[in-house]
Write a structure and sequence with these properties.
Blueprint lengths: L2 H27 L2 H22 L5 H19 L3 H14 L11 H9 L6 H12 L4 H7 L4 H17 L12 H20 L11 H17 L4 H14 L25 H17 L5 H12 L10 H14 L3 H15 L1 H9 L2 H4 L3 H13 L3 H14 L3 H12 L3
Helix pairs in contact: 1-2, 1-3, 1-5, 2-3, 3-4, 5-6, 6-8, 6-9, 7-8, 9-10, 9-11, 10-11, 11-12, 11-13, 12-13, 13-14, 14-15, 15-16, 16-18, 18-19, 19-20
Length: 410
């Protein structure tokens, strides 16, 4: 076997098996530190051994066995090894069964532990990317533009809180599952959004590494919870958004809005998969949640090859439905942008202006106002709105776009 073949096998195994190995060790030893470090050591051993010995027939089993041995060696070396060994063995041998209806997959237990509501959202994101996604601390630190040492402390504090608060390593009870799943999806959506449109001027405007990881983890959740409509909705939303990635930033680094994008460069395979998920959820007849509605809106946008053929009445109707479950100012703002295409900019501006108190520090509010004022010929007011949007925007591609639009005003 060539070194390249072994490297590809290790990369694939890391992508497919990391969460399973960490979850298995967490169940057995009851300690996230032991699970994480032993899994990392197992993969490091694979890097040394597989190019020489060949890739084992069952890479996941090999990695799990090797990681278990590393964990036991570590426990034996520690001063309190007797108590820890007893506790670990007791956990492994006598753990009570999950309540009826719980999903039996150790990866799902791990995800719910990392996304527990007792942890701050930033800690949930970091811990999920490390323990479930297998990203290294430096990779996570770079993704969120913080010092590596600070990210390391954040992850350590999260694990310490799980230990101190005795956060259970289990799937929530049936009555708690929907709420807890929504918390998991919120973490994944946050990761995706940071990749879709980075919030810092120091980052690349689009972070493909983050959007790819968010999609991969959402696919995992979809595999584990195939009947959950919001999981399917979030996956569809991510796929339909990611499909447009190649068309979203110009060669000069400027954001390209939906109406100006080259639709021929959209990823047809991702769009097809996203549309199938949306149709699957519609066919169930179950009232959709927020992610399913956002996916449906994106499905309308990606179902036509020309912006002029967009069914804006359907998009407004979907936003009306969305506003009933989430009557937030941001939803109202997005609905108003669609209304502008259906009923004209004057009607939409009246709606947008009513949101000023709530969204005064939100750059997209000022960007939307600027565009509507431009379309109404109110250049001076539009310029002022563009200035405010530029001041508040953090994404470099978005700032470049807004600056050009402002400078085009008469």
């Amino acid at each position: 076997m060539s070194a390249l073949d072994a490297e590809e096998a290790i990369t694939r195994a890391h992508r497919e098996e990391w969460a399973r190995v960490v979850a298995s060790l967490t169940k057995r030893f009851g300690d996230l530190d032991i699970a994480e470090e032993s899994a990392a050591e197992a993969f490091a051993t694979a890097v040394e051994r597989w190019p020489v010995d060949g890739v084992p027939p069952n890479p996941g089993a090999w990695l799990t066995t090797t990681a278990n041995r590393r964990a036991i060696d570590r426990i034996r070396r520690e001063s309190k090894r007797d108590d820890k060994q007893k506790e670990a063995q007791q956990m492994y041998d006598t753990e009570p069964p999950e309540p009826l209806g719980a999903i039996e997959d150790e990866r799902l237990r791990l995800i719910f532990t990392c996304c527990h509501p007792a942890l701050a959202m930033e800690a949930r994101v970091a811990l999920t990317l490390r323990m479930v996604g297998g990203l290294t601390v430096p990779e996570i630190a770079r993704a969120f533009l913080v010092q590596e040492s600070a990210m390391g402390r954040r992850i350590t504090r999260a694990k310490d809180k799980i230990r101190a608060a005795k956060i259970p390593y289990r799937v929530p009870d049936a009555e708690d599952l929907p709420t807890r799943v929504s918390g998991v999806l919120a973490v994944l959506f946050l990761v995706f959004n940071e990749g879709y449109l980075a919030t810092s001027p120091d980052a690349d405007p689009i972070r493909h590494d983050l959007t790819t990881e968010a999609i991969r983890l959402t696919r995992l959740i979809r595999t584990l919870l195939p009947r959950d409509g919001e999981v399917a909705g979030l996956l569809a939303l991510m796929l339909l958004t990611e499909a447009r990635r190649a068309a979203r930033v110009s060669t000069t680094g400027e954001l390209v809005t939906l109406d100006e994008q080259d639709r021929g460069s959209w990823d047809a395979e991702l769009i097809t998969e996203g549309h199938e998920l949306v149709r699957e959820r519609i066919a169930t007849g179950v009232a959709p949640g927020r992610y399913q509605l956002l996916a449906a809106i994106n499905a309308v946008h990606t179902s036509v090859r020309d912006m002029r053929d967009t069914d804006w009445s359907q998009i407004v109707a979907l936003y009306d439905q969305f506003a009933r479950i989430d009557p937030s100012p941001i939803v109202a703002l997005n609905r108003a942008i669609a209304v502008a295409e259906l009923d004209g900019p004057e009607v939409a501006l009246a709606i947008v202006d009513q949101l000023a108190d709530s969204l005064i520090n939100y750059h997209a509010f000022h960007a939307a106002r600027a565009d509507l004022l431009r379309r109404l010929g109110r250049s001076q007011d539009s310029r002022a709105a563009y200035d405010k949007a530029i001041e508040l925007a953090g994404n470099t591609a978005e700032t470049a776009y807004l600056t050009r639009r402002r400078d085009q005003l008469a």
